[in-house]
Amino acid sequence: MPARPKLRQDYLRAIELEMAYYASFARLLHGLRVATLFIGGGTPTLYDRQELSFLLRAIHHHFQISAEAEISIEANPETITAPKLELLRSLGVNRLSIGVQSFDDLLLSHIGRQHTAAQGLAAVQTAKDVGFTNVNLDLMFGLPGQTIQQHRESLQQALALGLEHLSVYGLQLEEGTHLEELVSCGELQLPDDDEVAEMYLLTDQLLTAAGYRHYEVSNYALEGKECRHHLDLWQNQEYIGLGAGAFSYIEQKRFANVSEVSKYCHQLIDTGCPPLGVCEEISAADEVIETLMLAFRTQSGLELSNFAARHGFAFRERYGHIAQELLQEGLLLQEGDRLTVTLQGMLLNNRVTGAFI
């Protein structure tokens, strides 16, 4: 989110203009009913209450939001206040995702987070006090200097909060970031691969024992609390993305806005049209691969009859020999018409998806 007040206002105005652009096409298609909405891609709760109100009201003005829609917003602990969360609830937000990452202050400092463990706990309590009944907590493992015991303690603290959803991600170092530089020069040291694997398996052990369903490589939910927005994405469904750098996938085309905020704002304000930075046609062959890659991230896996109906050929015609290898390795499991990924297959997800690519 832009820091300068003028650019912040321009950015909100540009996003509303982009909404109007897509809403005009929706009207030609006799309406577009939104089933899920995810406000993220950064820390949208850095916006103040007036700005958030403008954003949510604009969404409701331009699109038909289903009465049963899942409306999620991401928030970092240091940006959460009771008045802001009360406003979001009043504007229809019914799912909150809090980026706590760890309950260890030293580990948080290693990855450049601005909040403390105490602020993370306070943010969760505030969400509960305000009345949110669908809260996700983001945690990370494989952090610089992190031990298996530290990860266990963070998981135990997360479980004690009794939340509906937990996302537990392995750290991915981004090239060129300050954290990557610190690791490269040896100032910070990452856990080795065996330790990271043990952290992943420990996560599954503790969370499934506590009643959470491990429904995607990095995601756990109580029954009925899976993130519907992400489930649609993992089923390779179409979506519209709004904002600088946002991706969309419509009619086998994937395209993205330019990531530079000022350029994004200027073109929309001047022309009313989104400034595209990337646009690619997804071939039938690419769509097949994406269907497989996404399906084998999830516990529900691949329904073979649906695959044939969508892509026009039987899965085993082209991929039967690959699936057989993965079944023998214990990475996939077949139950009737469905192929699913095992826990070991989730741990070695790159091996599973790479086999099909």
Q: Estimate the mean pLDDT confidence.
A: 94
The run of helices and strands is: HEHEHEHHEHEHHEEHEEHEHEHHEEHH
Distance between the termini: 35 Å
Strand content: 15-25%
CATH class of the largest domain: Alpha Beta
CATH architecture of the largest domain: Alpha-Beta Barrel
User: What spatial order of strands do you see in the largest sheet?
Assistant: 1-2-3-4-5-7-6
Total tally of structural domains: 3
> Strand tally, please?
13
Cα shape: globular
What is the CATH topology of the largest domain? TIM Barrel
> Count of helical segments?
15
Task: Give the low-pLDDT segments.
Answer: none
* Global Rg: 21 Å
- Which structural class matches the secondary elements? alpha/beta
Largest sheet: 7 strands, mixed
**What share of the residues lie within helices?**
40-55%
CATH homologous superfamily annotation of the largest domain: Aldolase class I
Describe it for me?
This protein is an alpha/beta fold. It starts with a helix and ends with a helix. The chain has helices at residues 5-28, 49-62, 82-90, 105-110, 117-130, 148-160, 178-184, 193-209, 228-234, 261-271, 284-295, 304-311, 315-328, 343-347, 349-356, and strands spanning 33-39, 64-75, 95-101, 135-141, 165-170, 213-216, 219-221, 247-250, 253-257, 276-281, 302-303, 332-335, 338-341. The model has no long low-confidence stretch (mean pLDDT 94).
